[in-house]
Amino acid sequence: MRLEGKPVVEGRARGELLVTREPLTFFGGVDPLTGVVVEHGHELRGHRVSGRILVLPHSRGSTVGSYTLLRLAKRGLAPAGIVAQRGDEVLVVGCIIAEIPMMLVPSLRELCELGSGRLAELRVERDGAVLEVL
């Protein structure tokens, strides 16, 4: 499967997909010391974001979430890349300062149907972005 999208933060990433239909709170929702989702009631609770290509509709919560992404990156625990439906400020700023490749797609339907665990490669360049599920 190959999905093209809008580039947000340039870079390349390869890793397993971690897919959610729910927005994610990074500040208080992802443990910056372990990279594990700890948000109560979230479908990804207990899953590690580290080294994975995180697929989500958007983030939510405090702007401190951007710095949580940076803290994760400094510890080597950040997502390898992020694919989102909406580029909210927290997510975009977090990916910029943490240097996490990010692209936007108009719909997550196909990726949600695929689910987590498949190996994928994300390539984000100034003039285009592609996610290839291997």
From TrEMBL:
Documented EC number(s): 4.2.1.182
Pfam families, alphabetized: AcnX_swivel_put
Top-rank taxon: Archaea
Enzyme kind, highest EC tier: lyase
The entry's keywords: Lyase
Domain Phosphomevalonate dehydratase small subunit-like: 24-103
InterPro entries in alphabetical order: PMDh-S-like (IPR012016), PMDh-S-like_dom (IPR002840)
SUPFAM superfamilies: LeuD/IlvD-like (SSF52016)
GO molecular function: lyase activity
Catalytic activity: (R)-5-phosphomevalonate = (2E)-3-methyl-5-phosphooxypent-2-enoate + H2O
Binding partners and assembly: Heterodimer composed of a large subunit (PMDh-L) and a small subunit (PMDh-S).
Its job: Component of a hydro-lyase that catalyzes the dehydration of mevalonate 5-phosphate (MVA5P) to form trans-anhydromevalonate 5-phosphate (tAHMP). Involved in the archaeal mevalonate (MVA) pathway, which provides fundamental precursors for isoprenoid biosynthesis, such as isopentenyl diphosphate (IPP) and dimethylallyl diphosphate (DMAPP).
Protein's name according to its UniProt entry: phosphomevalonate dehydratase
